[in-house]
Specification:
By secondary structure, this protein is α/β, with parallel strands linked by helices. The longest helix is centred in the middle third of the chain and has 11 residues. The strands form three sheets. Strands 3-2-1-4-5-11-10 form a seven-stranded mixed beta sheet, sandwiched between helices. A two-stranded antiparallel sheet has the order 6-7. A two-stranded antiparallel sheet has the order 8-9. The protein is globular and about 55 Å long. Helix 4 links the parallel strand 1 and strand 2. 26% of the residues lie in helices and 28% in strands.
């Protein structure tokens, strides 16, 4: 299977490296306060981070007592940055796709994924794998782009003649599948699925839902350019589930 690896494209990676979340870490991510509120206790846990990027969540888990943390990402450029930023000896980074990853049953007690699942074509297959990798009672916590945000495809506002934002278009909501999105001015392939698919797939595969949240940027970030507009439509979804 050939995986798109946009983050190793030099132009795209340079643009990504200038984002608030890249420059400031977790404090620069608008969804972080919401995600942090639904994370499990990491003390003594074996943790897997799918699509670990710069490794911010791996570092956080290690700082909060995780026994071991494995960060998996397809982008070597992302992993190079993660390795430079990480000093905790219990954190390991490995290049690979989450779709092709294989681990023994019960290898982890926590599986995390931050803003990566919308790049996965076969979400139900990945959920089944995550369940297999988790020990009973293990936690699966992820953020992904909200179905309202992914539905139409381009992921941009509708603008008036004067260039002001009119509204955010939602179209083809129930037609799941591949979308040609524009992220940081670059073409990126993503996959749209409904809220029903995202949540029911977990329930059908032996998980119970602990939290379902739609992150909003915190008040202190609303003065930044463009951030107040994030209150006009949901961009992200945060879910915490537990394996039975």
């Amino acid at each position: 299977m050939t995986m798109e690896n946009k983050y190793d494209d030099p132009v795209f990676f340079e643009k990504y490296s200038q984002m608030d979340r890249s420059q400031e870490g977790l404090s620069g991510a608008g969804e972080w306060q919401t995600l942090r509120s639904i994370l499990p206790d990491f003390a003594g846990k074996r943790v897997l981070d799918l699509g670990c990027g710069y490794g911010w969540h791996c570092i956080y888990a290690a700082e909060h007592g995780a026994r071991s943390v494995l960060g998996l990402d397809l982008s070597e450029k992302m992993l190079e940055v993660a390795r430079r930023k990480t000093s905790q000896p219990q954190v390991e980074y490995r290049r690979g796709s989450m779709e092709e990853a294989a681990f023994p049953s019960g290898s982890f007690q926590v599986v995390l994924s931050s803003l990566a699942l919308h790049y996965v074509e076969d979400y139900p297959a990945l959920v089944r794998k995550v369940r297999e990798w988790l020990s009973p009672g293990g936690d699966f916590v992820f953020t992904c782009e909200h179905p309202v945000f992914t539905a139409q495809g381009p992921q941009d506002w509708e603008y008036g003649e004067d260039g002001s934002i009119r509204h955010f278009p939602v179209d083809r909501y129930f037609l799941e599948g591949k979308r040609d999105a524009c992220f940081l001015g670059e073409h990126v392939v993503k996959y749209h699925r409904t809220l029903t698919t995202l949540l029911e797939t977990l329930l059908e595969n032996g998980f119970v839902l602990l939290h379902v949240k739609e992150p909003q940027p915190p008040a202190e970030m609303l003065s930044r350019p463009g951030w107040a507009d994030e209150l006009r439509r949901p961009m992200m979804l945060a879910v915490a589930a537990r394996r039975l």
